Amino acid sequence: MATLFDQAKLMARELQDSDEFKQLSTALAKVRADQEANSAFHDFQVAQKEIQELQSKGEEPKPEQIQRWQTTAQKAQQLKPIKDLSVVEQNLNNMLGEVNEIITAPLNELYLNN
User: Fold this and answer.
1) Considering the domain boundaries, does residue 87 fall inside one?
2) From residue 61, how far is each of 14, 46, 53, 73, 106 by CA, in Å?
3) How many structural domains compose the chain?
4) Which residues form a coiled coil?
């Protein structure tokens, strides 16, 4: 019998073969091919990472850091390749959420039945 980790590796391969993953790959390639979108996407990722790192240390971001993040997010969301990427990311996240519900169903049942 395969171990849980073997099953997880199989699921990772299945994820890569899914339409959602392929759509994400295509959408991301379109962002990278568009100089303006790629630059805006990069700026957003840098600003977001900066805030996340502070929060992971229990620190609050400075108002100017939050403003920079919001500004880069607004700029990025105005660009079609990034809008399209966001839709595809949401679809993939929905699928992963459903998979997570299936995987964790035994845990939920355990807590509800005891």
Assistant:
1) yes
2) 38, 14, 9, 16, 38
3) 1
4) none
